[in-house]
């Protein structure tokens, strides 16, 4: 199982009786446990072959593996010999190869949506064609070997307990009810995450043909708890644990990925574009799920902050509805696009978290201060997803309604926060003086990234755009204060239809 699997849709704090986890270390090919997934089988093969493949400059052939039965939610074993080879051959596996009971389980079992992804066995009707190992990569030549031998270690996979349903906040007034209804209509569903995870699983398998020790992580709003049904997918390709030069190495690696998408995977990847930004990305669309993706190389801070934000999302049940409404509001008012000089969704999330931390009676703590060992910025990547699982809910004495908190959010940034001298810091759970470094000078909005401490709002570099953002906060606060109706700042019916 990969840490990005769909059962992470649950909060990060399992009940005490379920907290003991099972870890799989590197799996020997001939002794796979009964719960070993298709992804684990693939990973085991690659881990054993990597050293020989890198030393010789070519990829060895993958040995045949006979997987053991999987145990699904109802305890019945499911044989997966067809599934384990479906991506190494051209012929699509027929629907008849899957038993009728398994099909019924997908539809009716309460585990059905998470099972397919947790076990990394794609549904038969959603399998796609693969291709032989025909792509040659200069990164595997002898002079690149020293750079790649320190690659990502094998994951210690964790078997998480079943998802836990969180109790939604009580809505006693009209505005709070509107916020809650919008959240329930637009929040990302398990099936949405499953589609993204299926694409990630397949792409990782194909990319590993070029970079055998690489791992593909689903990051950002898809996994951090703040995604909507229309959220794009963000992917981080980790080639090695060490930093990668974004101007040279990352661009070269992405050029190979772009070529792969444009040729061998063109049957289900469309519109791939290589964007040569400060952090270069490949943008593409998955035809099957109709999801737009951005893929970067070794921007590992995105993996760390995904699980930090995920923990904030679930330790207090008012956090996710507030963040979703603020993101929808910013999108509607055209101030949620970093490529056009306004605020990124990530900055908006940090702004909401910061506000909830700075109330006279805080609703959120600083997780990095309270649990430094769980959010250590030097922690190895294959351990990052495990630590938040033990953090309990935060019990705040602040009983403010969703509506009051939303009005207070806009008031805080419209009238209280000092944009000229202060920086938003979720890490410190307070507004702190702006640093004097070059990255912070002449910037209109300063939002500290919790791990690498860069400015996530550096895209707001024009005074005109900054003035527009401030004006929207002020106008929205005044309207909501007087009307207490979400429709006055955001058309609810249209927004719910777009999701």
UniProtKB/TrEMBL annotation:
Catalytic activity: RNA(n) + ATP = RNA(n)-3'-adenine ribonucleotide + diphosphate
Domain (Poly(A) RNA polymerase mitochondrial-like central palm): residue spans on this chain: 175-313
KW Isomerase (keyword) present: no
GO biological process: mRNA processing; regulation of gene expression; RNA 3'-end processing
CDD domains, per the entry: NT_PAP_TUTase
PAP-associated domain boundaries: 401-455
Keyword list, A-Z: ATP-binding, Cytoplasm, Magnesium, Manganese, Metal-binding, mRNA processing, Nucleotide-binding, Transferase
Cofactor(s) needed: Mn(2+); Mg(2+)
GO CC list: cytoplasm
GO terms of molecular function: ATP binding; metal ion binding; poly(A) RNA polymerase activity
Record bears the keyword Protein biosynthesis: no
EC number(s) reported in the record: 2.7.7.19
Main location as per UniProt: cytoplasm
Entry-linked InterPro entries: MTPAP-like_central, NT_sf, PAP_assoc
Residue ranges of the region described as Disordered: 58-88
Ranges of Polar residues composition bias in the record: 77-86
Subcellular location: Cytoplasm
Superkingdom of source: Eukaryota
Family assignment from sequence similarity: Belongs to the DNA polymerase type-B-like family. GLD2 subfamily.
The protein's name in its UniProt record: polynucleotide adenylyltransferase
Annotated organism of origin: Opisthocomus hoazin
Source organism phylogeny: Eukaryota, Metazoa, Chordata, Craniata, Vertebrata
């Amino acid at each position: 199982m990969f840490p990005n699997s769909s059962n992470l849709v649950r909060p990060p704090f399992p009940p005490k009786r379920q907290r003991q986890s099972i870890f799989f270390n590197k799996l020997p090919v001939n002794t796979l446990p009964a719960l070993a997934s298709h992804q684990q089988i693939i990973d085991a093969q690659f881990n054993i072959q990597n050293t020989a493949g890198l030393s010789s400059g070519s990829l060895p052939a993958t040995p045949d593996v006979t997987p053991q039965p999987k145990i699904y939610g109802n305890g019945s074993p499911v044989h997966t010999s067809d599934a384990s080879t479906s991506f190494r051959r051209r012929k699509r596996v027929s629907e008849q190869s899957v038993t009728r009971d398994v099909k019924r389980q997908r539809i009716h079992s309460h585990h059905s949506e998470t099972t397919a992804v947790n076990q990394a066995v794609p549904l038969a009707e959603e399998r796609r064609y693969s291709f032989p190992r025909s792509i040659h990569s200069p990164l595997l030549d002898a002079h690149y070997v020293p750079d790649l031998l320190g690659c990502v270690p094998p994951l210690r996979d964790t078997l998480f307990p079943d998802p836990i349903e969180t109790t939604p906040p009580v809505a006693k007034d009209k505005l709070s009810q509107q916020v809650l209804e919008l959240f329930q209509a637009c929040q990302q569903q398990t099936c949405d995450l499953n589609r993204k995870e299926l694409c990630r699983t397949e792409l990782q398998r194909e990319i590993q043909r070029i970079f055998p020790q690489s791992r593909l992580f689903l990051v950002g709003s898809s996994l951090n708890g703040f995604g909507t049904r229309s959220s794009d997918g963000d992917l981080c390709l980790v080639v090695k644990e060490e930093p990668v030069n974004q101007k040279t190495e990352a661009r070269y690696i992405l050029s190979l990925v772009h070529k792969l998408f444009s040729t061998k995977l063109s049957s289900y990847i469309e519109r791939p574009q290589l964007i040569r930004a400060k952090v270069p990305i490949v943008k593409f669309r998955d035809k099957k799920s109709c999801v737009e993706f951005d893929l970067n190389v070794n921007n590992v801070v995105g993996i760390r902050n995904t699980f930090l934000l995920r923990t904030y999302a679930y330790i207090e049940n008012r956090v996710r509805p507030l963040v979703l409404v603020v993101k929808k509001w910013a999108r509607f008012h055209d101030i949620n696009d970093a490529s056009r000089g306004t605020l990124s969704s990530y900055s908006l999330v940090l702004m909401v978290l910061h506000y909830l931390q700075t109330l006279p009676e805080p609703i959120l703590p600083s997780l990095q201060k309270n649990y430094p060992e769980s959010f250590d910025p030097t922690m190895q990547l294959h351990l990052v997803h495990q630590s938040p699982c033990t953090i309990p809910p935060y019990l705040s004495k602040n009983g403010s309604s969703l509506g009051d908190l939303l009005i207070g959010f806009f008031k805080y940034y419209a009238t209280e926060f000092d944009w000229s001298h202060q920086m938003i810091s979720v890490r410190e759970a307070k507004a702190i003086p702006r640093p004097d470094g070059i990255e912070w000078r002449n910037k209109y909005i300063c939002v500290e990234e919790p791990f690498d401490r860069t400015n996530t709002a550096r895209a707001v570099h024009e005074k005109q755009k900054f003035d527009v953002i401030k004006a929207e906060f002020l106008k929205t606060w005044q309207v909501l204060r007087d009307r207490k109706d979400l429709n006055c700042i955001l058309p609810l019916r249209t927004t719910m239809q777009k999701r």
